Amino acid sequence: MPPHQPESMVAAIRQSPPVDVSVPYESAWVKGKTILITGGASGFGAGFVRHWAEQGATVVVGDINVEKGDVLAREVRKETGNANVHFVHCDVTDWQSQVNLFREAARLSPHGGIDTVVANAGIAGADAMQRPQGMTDAEPPKPNFKIMDVNCTGVMYTAHLAYYWLPRNSGSDACSMDSQPGTTCRDRHLLLVGSIASLAPIAAQPQYGAAKHAVLGLFRSLRATSHPQGIRVNLILPYFIDTPIVTLGARVVLAGGAMGKVEDVVDAATRFVADSRILGRSLVIGPKVTLKQLDNGEWDLVAKGTPGSRETALWEPYAEDWEDVDAFDRNIVKVLNAVQAARGWIGWATDIVKAVGYGLGFGR
Ligand SMILES: NC(=O)c1ccc[n+]([C@@H]2O[C@H](COP(=O)([O-])OP(=O)(O)OC[C@H]3O[C@@H](n4cnc5c(N)ncnc54)[C@H](O)[C@@H]3O)[C@@H](O)[C@H]2O)c1
């Protein structure tokens, strides 16, 4: 075995610097983008649809709830005057249903491509892992793993299809932290929706916790290997936020504590969608807190109005995990970069052959 040689891969995976949420961005930068949102009929998704449609994006919602999705699309079209807001029935656990959603989104897109995919659909609730049924039977019955199906397999299908469609967004360039947001709407962006349950244990919801940890793992892996396709991958990690997914039981347990706000989730997601310079980053969204930076660089919770403090609901976790990697990750990333560079030379050689052929009268 070669000795362990930690090495920073931040530049090699084209990861942008940590997100500074005090730096402003323009929501208007989403104008003209075609955005596909799974589970967009309710909660965060509905918040994204309204805000991005107001800014002039084309929004295609795929949701299992036909009634809510249809009403939302009709309402938002009427309220915003933006005709490019569409609902398509989709069950994210059904591969063919997601294939149809992506195909339909490209067909409805005014420019024929998809710029951003938001893997948002999710469920919570009674967990078969927590309360196994029928364990006294001679043979245990097959458990209901619907939460894993929607929150993990459904997200994997969405990510897989995003990796098919985003590089086919003709007119888009490979994502880059040197891009100039607002100058072109074209993008190749996958925004994953995790949870605080991606980072911390969640009692009584083992499937939900496992699925959301899987989303975090997907993000941390994909962000290292997405640059050959020119795709940027980001992640939002909301704390408990007041939407229909928060069960009555959870509301009772949370009584007296703070919940986050949908508007802050919309803010975090809009920053990622709008600012094409952000590559491979994540933001936690919690209740608003007042923070002050100490002399040692650490942040401390302080009373509202404390001089030098600022109020925020957002902060970035896992900012450093590609700064020191092991030999396996280092070698994989180097191979990917070498393949990409080689493709570049092949592309150049192909163009030269074409140019010579053209000069000789072929293909005119
Ligand atoms: N609200 C919170 O406290 C919170 C916190 C962290 C993460 N999240 C995550 O945010 C995402 C959105 O949740 P929300 O809070 O807006 O909840 P929500 O219940 O309001 O919205 C979820 C949407 O997903 C749709 N959906 C469910 N199953 C589906 C399926 N099989 N196919 C297609 N669509 C399906 C629902 O119809 C609904 O419109 C979820 O992934 C959730 O896990 C929510």
Question: What features would you highlight for this structure?
Answer:
single chain; 364 residues; alpha/beta; Rossmann fold; 2 domains; nine-stranded mixed sheet; 9 strands; globular; binds nicotinamide-adenine-dinucleotide; Sc_DH/Rdtase_CS; oxidoreductase; SDR_fam; NAD(P)-bd_dom_sf
Give your account of this protein's structure.
Belongs to the short-chain dehydrogenases/reductases (SDR) family. One of its GO terms (molecular function) is oxidoreductase activity. InterPro entries: NAD(P)-bd_dom_sf, Sc_DH/Rdtase_CS, SDR_fam. Pfam families: adh_short. The protein is an alpha/beta fold and about 375 residues long. The chain has 2 domains: about 25-325, 3-Layer(aba) Sandwich (Rossmann fold); about 325-364. About 35% of the residues lie in helices and about 15% in strands. It is built from 8 helices and 9 strands. It has helices spanning about 45-55, 65-80, 95-110, 145-165, 205-225, 250-255, 260-275, 325-360, and strands at about 35-40, 60-65, 85-90, 115-120, 190-195, 230-240, 280-295, 300, 310-315. Strand 2, helix 2 and strand 3 form a beta-alpha-beta unit. Helix 1 (about 45-55) packs parallel to helix 2, helix 3 packs parallel to helix 4 and helix 4 (about 145-165) packs parallel to helix 5 (about 205-225). It is globular, with a radius of gyration of 22 Å. The relative contact order is 0.14. The mean pLDDT is about 90. Bound molecules: nicotinamide-adenine-dinucleotide (NAD). Nicotinamide-adenine-dinucleotide binds near residues 38, 41, 44 and 121.
